[in-house]
Design brief:
Helix content: 40-55%
Strand content: 15-25%
Largest sheet: 5 strands, mixed
Structural class: alpha+beta
Number of helices: 13
Shape: globular
Distance between the termini: 44 Å
């Protein structure tokens, strides 16, 4: 993949197959189906609203009618009535708040009474062919795709707590090919976006700058990399092994940092531009939370604080029990977050599966078989 998009079907299939076999070996279970994280510059977030009338006769019932689940589903359906090009589709409908008559800021209107129900939502849209290419690769591995989930949304499930979502925070997930942004306030998602730069760009810069392999450049970045040049030591020497007959060379910690910092500055400035596109212009009590593999660079919070002028911390997926080297590593925020999202949003996920699989012959046969099993039981 490159920046979240499949660029080589065969290599992607091989990678997935290898990863699944390793997971099966470690877990002692056979993997039959998967949930897939989606990222990339093709993902767009849009804030929309929809409204419906609940009561048709104000005189008979001045208080209005009681809102039921069907009303909520109907108003959410109205809120996604936007013009999308045929090559795009809606991935998530994320409700921000509801309004019943003149009462605003309602999170769950079920059971309330009124004449008019309005929903403010954040729609996440994606390119159909990007999703389809990933689905093709996974199905070629003999796996069923249960659903697709926006990666920064998943990461936020494993990294952010309720206070950070309620009082305002910005999560920046620095991945390999992209950096994803998600903004929270009042327990609602205000904005989502992605920029086409990530940790791989820093690795390539190091490889170009010191004429070394990408594998060695990755080791240099992870083991010796310092985000801020002024905090690097010019006396600390680092040996670079020569590649393909070239001589070994020696650089300093400061030399390495002088390549890393400019690219980080670019990533954070592009992220800042994306954040400025948000409709929300209020305060972010908890500032910036950095996660993803790229956030592990030493002193990265110092650079981020200078650019955003906000408090910055590293977000780790420690909200579950597990191996310390996994739950304390921001690299695994998205993977753990996908699991948590599926567990916490089971009903919505199942509805999404129905939409995704509605045209699948395999799925129809599978559903009929399940109905037969249920009938027999």
């Amino acid at each position: 993949l490159s920046k979240g998009i499949v660029v080589d079907i065969e290599q992607t299939i091989n990678s997935i197959d290898k990863a699944v076999k390793e997971a099966e070996k470690q877990a002692g279970f056979e993997v039959e189906s998967v949930f897939v994280g989606l990222t990339g510059e093709h993902i767009k977030g849009i804030n929309c609203s929809g409204a419906i009338s609940i009561s048709s006769n104000d005189y008979r019932n001045p208080a209005g009618e009681q809102i039921d689940q069907e009303d909520i589903e109907k108003v959410l359906e109205h809120s996604q009535a936007i013009n999308l090009s045929p090559d795009r589709k809606i991935l998530h409908i994320l409700s921000k708040e509801f309004k019943v008559d003149e009462k605003k800021g309602i999170k769950n209107p079920l059971g309330l009474s009124g004449h008019r129900l309005e929903a403010n939502v954040h729609l996440v849209t994606i390119e159909r062919n990007t999703e389809k290419d990933l689905e093709t690769c996974i199905e070629q591995c003999g796996l069923d795709v249960e659903g697709f989930i926006l990666e920064p949304l998943a990461s936020s499930m494993s990294v952010l707590d309720e206070n950070e979502k309620k009082l305002g925070s910005i999560l920046i997930d620095i991945g390999g090919g992209t950096s994803d942004i998600i903004i929270y306030h009042n327990n609602a998602i205000m904005h989502t976006g992605a920029i086409p730069l990530g940790g791989e760009n820093i690795t390539k810069d190091i490889a170009y700058g010191f004429q070394t392999s990408l594998e060695q450049a990755e080791i240099l970045k992870c083991k010796y990399g310092i985000a801020k040049r002024s905090l690097a030591d010019k006396e600390n020497k680092i040996k670079i092994l020569g590649t393909n007959g070239r001589e070994d060379k020696e650089i300093t910690e400061k030399d390495l940092s002088s390549i890393i910092q400019p690219r980080l500055n670019e990533i954070f400035n592009l992220a800042k531009n994306e954040i400025n596109k948000s409709d929300y212009k209020g305060e972010f009590t908890f500032g910036i939370i950095l996660t993803g593999g790229g956030s592990s660079l030493k002193n990265i919070t110092d650079i981020a604080q200078e650019i955003f002028n906000l408090p910055v911390k590293i977000g780790i997926p420690d909200s579950i029990n597990g191996k310390i080297d996994i739950i304390n590593n921001p690299r695994f925020s998205t993977a753990i977050g996908i699991v948590k999202y599926v567990v916490n949003n089971g009903k919505n996920i199942n509805e999404k599966i129905k939409i995704i699989k509605e045209n699948s012959i395999f799925s129809l046969c599978k559903n009929k078989l399940q109905q037969l099993i249920n009938y027999i039981n």
